[in-house]
Amino acid sequence: MTKKELALEVIERLKKEYPEAGCTLDYNQAWKLLVSVRLAAQCTDARVNVVVKDLYARFPDIDALASASVEEIEEIVKPCGLGHSKARDISACMKMLRDEHGGRVPDDFDQLLKLPGVGRKSANLIMGDVFGKPAIVTDTHCIRLVNRMGLVDGIKEPKKVEMALWKLIPPEEGSDFCHRLVEHGRAVCTARTKPYCDKCCLKDVCARAGVEQTA
């Protein structure tokens, strides 16, 4: 089985296993997902979803958040950890949206990368979930699982994993595929415990189980 064939098989099996998989950060506007994904660094999505309720109650739109001081933002978001740096990035990002983008989140990948606190992972999440464009989000679950499966070989750098997956994953499948990897990584192919290979829907095709893949 080639890596591309393996990728298509994995996609189909995960679709059946996690048909409703999606972003676990709560948002109803693009700028709110930008805020939440910055807060989610080294913090659980569940905690972020609680904290942002207080943030938006006080600063309900881009203009309000752009006008807030870093200290005011930090006071609310500090339960997410790294409070000062996250507050600084959120403040600068909202100011840039207000001043340079007419209060709108750009739907261009390179423009997203220019926003403070936005890296490739965040930009891909926005492109896929908000704008429905091809995207591959290489978070820790994605990197761990695609290495175990044999879709990539010992690659741990997020951008390199992303570039490798672009060659294997159909563009229209990338965003949902990555969401399903998160679900699978939390439920079965775990990081902190031994993975539950015995109940894995991929156990007969996964490289970890001894199946050899060829390029």
Description:
- The chain folds into two domains: 94 residues, Helix-hairpin-Helix base-excision DNA repair enzymes (C-terminal) (Endonuclease Iii, domain 2); 101 residues, Hypothetical protein, domain 2 (Endonuclease III, domain 1).
- The chain contains eleven helices and no strands.
- α2 runs antiparallel to α6.
- With 215 residues, it is an all-alpha fold.
- It is elongated, with a radius of gyration of 18 Å.
- It starts with a helix and ends in a 28-residue tail after the last helix.
Could you state the order of secondary-structure elements as H and E? HHHHHHHHHHH
> CATH topology of the largest domain, which one?
Endonuclease III, domain 1
Estimate percent helicity. 55-70%
The first-level CATH class name of the largest domain: Mainly Alpha
Q: Tally the beta strands.
A: 0
Walk me through the topology.
Blueprint: H1 3-17, H2 30-39, H3 45-58, H4 62-67, H5 70-77, H6 83-100, H7 109-113, H8 120-130, H9 140-149, H10 158-166, H11 174-187
Helix pairs in contact: 2-6, 5-6, 9-11
Question: Can you summarize this structure?
Answer:
The protein has 215 residues and is mostly helical.
Keywords:
Endonuclease Iii, domain 2, mainly alpha, 215 residues, Endonuclease III, domain 1
